[in-house]
Backbone:
């Protein structure tokens, strides 16, 4: 009988039912689209943010290693648990040198590093690592070093030495000299403009520190820090530690890298990690807020439509009450209608929202997205929440209807 | 001696400053057919609404079928209406998008479990076996009123309330409806309280009370 009442109720008021269905569908579609691209947006934004610099600094432990890390350990970084989150890294070996060029002399830092090194790790896909990967914002006039005696010179130092691209500069360290060809001049606005960057192997030789590096900068995709992420792992229970270790906090990724680099200590670069975390958190909050606003707007539209049809339905509800329907039975009719419309609206909303998410992803990120499995039940639940929230006020009005007033002859 | 099914003591209903029903003492024995007459605004419908649990008294006591109506909650009144009372309205008040048989089944649904065979039988009893699948708009006024009667009796109520049930019917249809009620009462043995302003209709009852400005001014027994 309930089904007959519901069926006929729908057929009797197709316009009102369609308006409610449309409102619920739109709410579910927007929720599906926003939630669907939220994960994708976070991922893409995190990748974009990685271009603003490394977020983990790996340096020799104060207790062991003698102030250096071993170059031969570097490939291990791409074998750790979080290897797919590590988008790039580059080692540095620093030394103080006397630079001479065009009859001018300057004391400064010579840095040995990787620029664009193909790294082959047994059992893993080969990757390219180096400054070009982790510091894509470097503005290099000229080109990147191609030969062992090519170097990139900071713009400020080059200016003082009167150097331009193609020029020669002599670096001397404790009586050992190395002549470099200026392949490029770098402008960063930072300390890099005072240094000379040359291939790691050349600088190791110049400094007589073969196979050694001073520090490694690592760029990793991480999740925003929360209260749990900030806890000291030393105070965690086994389960807590496992959860922390398996969450891509910058601290847990740093710990993961530290474990494979002998004699190292990994520290998050907080100004980068915090800024990224805060930005991603805000982005997620905005997406969530937009979703809630969209669902709220849909619920309001549902409520308005149902309220408008309530005047038309008052005699029907009053009659039902007069013949003995109690509040539960009246509620059951409303909830039944709501369930059917929200189920249909949820399914259609999901299909529309999925397409909308695809369109947004293609337009904004120029890529497709894979719809996660949880999105379908989420769309159905969103539709139901919208329908229930929108039905509360009309239902309260329905329950307040007094048969004696409405059915008055 | 038959038991009393309706008993009021100083029953009053006020709407703001207006007193629609002044203190009324009334007893209705089980199985009686009571007609209530009076002019428009005399308090007849107010009394009927109170007896049917559609409205609450302002003062006084009201017991129907041993139930203290003052003490019932909203859902308690709904239960009382579906289990104890059948109501026939002047305007029929049928759900327009349901067929005749579905309108009857709706009362079953709110009472317990819908039974289409039983609903068909009820419509056959009121002479509408051939109109089961028709919607109210496809029925005449008299036929709609008979659907309303079938709906009112489907749950075997102890008390049948009629609010001007023939008010919108022509003479022929009125006679048909009254004959039908007489037959059903003889079979079902329910109590009838029927509000009317038509003395001919009132004469079908066992007793008639007259209300004027909310006061019971006269009563007379129409049958021995």
Residues:
């Amino acid at each position: 009988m309930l089904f007959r009442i519901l069926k006929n109720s729908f057929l009797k008021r197709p316009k009102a039912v369609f308006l409610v269905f449309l409102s619920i569908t739109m709410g579910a579609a927007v929720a599906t689209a926003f939630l669907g691209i939220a994960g994708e947006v976070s991922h893409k934004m995190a990748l974009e943010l990685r271009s603003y610099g490394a977020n983990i600094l790996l340096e020799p432990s104060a207790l062991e290693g003698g102030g250096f890390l071993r170059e031969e350990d570097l490939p291990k970084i791409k074998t750790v648990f979080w290897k797919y989150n590590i988008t790039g890294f580059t080692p540095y070996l620093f030394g103080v040198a006397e630079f001479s060029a065009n009859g001018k002399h300057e004391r400064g830092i010579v840095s040995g590093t990787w620029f664009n090194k193909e790294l082959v790790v047994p059992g893993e896909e080969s990757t390219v690592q180096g400054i070009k990967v982790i510091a894509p914002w470097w503005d290099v006039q000229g080109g990147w070093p191609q030969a062992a005696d090519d170097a990139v010179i900071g713009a400020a130092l080059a200016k003082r030495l009167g150097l331009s691209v193609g020029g020669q500069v002599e670096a001397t360290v404790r009586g050992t000299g190395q002549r470099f060809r200026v392949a490029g001049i770098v402008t960063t606005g930072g300390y890099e403009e005072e240094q000379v960057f040359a291939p790691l192997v050349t600088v190791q030789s110049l400094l007589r520190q073969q196979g050694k590096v001073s520090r490694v900068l690592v760029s990793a995709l991480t999740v925003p820090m929360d209260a749990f992420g900030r806890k000291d792992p030393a105070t965690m229970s086994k389960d807590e530690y496992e959860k922390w270790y398996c969450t891509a906090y910058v601290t847990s990724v740093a710990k993961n890298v530290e474990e494979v680099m002998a004699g190292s200590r990994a520290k998050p670069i907080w100004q980068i990690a915090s800024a990224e975390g805060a930005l991603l958190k805000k982005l997620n909050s905005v997406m969530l807020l937009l979703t809630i606003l969209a669902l709220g707007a849909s619920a309001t539209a549902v409520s308005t439509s149902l309220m408008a049809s309530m005047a038309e339905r008052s005699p029907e509800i009053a009659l039902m009450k007069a013949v003995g329907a109690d509040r539960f039975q009246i509620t059951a009719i409303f909830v039944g209608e709501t369930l059917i419309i929200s189920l249909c609206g949820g399914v259609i909303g999901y299909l529309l929202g999925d397409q909308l998410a695809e369109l947004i992803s293609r337009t904004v990120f120029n890529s497709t997205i894979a719809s996660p499995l949880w999105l379908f039940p989420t769309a159905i639940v969103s539709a139901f929440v919208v329908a229930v929230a929108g039905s509360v006020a009309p239902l309260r009005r329905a329950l307040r209807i007094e048969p004696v007033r409405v059915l008055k002859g | 001696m038959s038991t009393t099914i309706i008993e009021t003591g100083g029953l009053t209903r006020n709407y703001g400053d207006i007193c629609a029903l002044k203190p009324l003492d009334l007893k209705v024995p089980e199985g009686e057919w009571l007609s209530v007459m009076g002019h428009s605004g005399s308090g007849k419908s107010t009394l009927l609404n109170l007896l049917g649990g559609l409205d609450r008294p302002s003062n006084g006591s009201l017991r129907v079928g041993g139930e203290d109506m003052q003490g019932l909650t909203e859902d308690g009144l709904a239960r009382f209406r579906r289990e104890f009372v059948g109501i026939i309205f002047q305007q029929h008040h049928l759900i327009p998008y349901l067929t005749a048989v579905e309108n009857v089944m709706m009362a079953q649904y709110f009472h317990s479990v819908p039974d289409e065979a039983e609903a068909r039988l009820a419509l056959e009893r009121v002479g509408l076996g051939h109109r089961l699948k028709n919607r109210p708009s496809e029925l005449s006024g008299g036929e709609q009123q008979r659907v309303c009667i079938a709906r009112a009796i489907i749950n075997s109520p102890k008390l049948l309330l009629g609010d001007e049930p023939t008010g919108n019917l022509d003479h022929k249809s009125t006679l048909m409806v009254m004959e039908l009620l007489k037959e059903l009462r003889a079979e079902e043995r329910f109590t009838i309280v029927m509000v009317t302003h038509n003395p001919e209709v009132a004469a079908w009852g066992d007793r008639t009370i007259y209300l004027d400005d909310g006061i019971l001014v006269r009563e007379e027994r129409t049958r021995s």
Summary: The longest helix of chain A spans residues 270-322. The first strand of chain A starts at residue 56 and ends at 60.
